[in-house]
Amino acid sequence: MSDKEMEAWWALEAAADAARRTATAALREQGLTPSQYELLELLEGMRCGCCGEGECRCESSYLCQNDLGGRIACTKGNVSGLVHRLAAEGLISREPDPRDRRYNAVRITGKGRGVLMAARPAFAEAVRHTLAPLNAEDLEALTGALGKLRPAGAQGPALPSPNGEDHANERTR
Q: Quick check: pTM over 0.70?
């Protein structure tokens, strides 16, 4: 391993750790963990938009609980506890998956959507704070470089853009 590779690795580790700490602190003030926030964003992105502000009951508005571990930064083993806690708080619902009743279908509730909307500004500010030293060109280069490191097929929640446009439903299921 070259010195440049080691230097890049430790810089990546330090930046990721700082970003995670900033986001964690901002979300903690909103009563959420980063994994909870990420799951709520992912489920919000599944809403079709036809159901207004309440809980979307359309078939396309849920994800199979079994698929969540590959969609968020959480191991499959931790997904069960995460889903259980959010369901206990009424932020998500879980019911038998109509396509395969051996699994649970998970969707965001109206209450979960409210908590998510309240947490978004704090998360956005944490992101802005973390990325403030970078200009537009730096951000583009960073996104490109990190995209090369992301495992093939890896997905995360598609978040609304800072200008208010919601691109969440552009993601594929």
A: yes
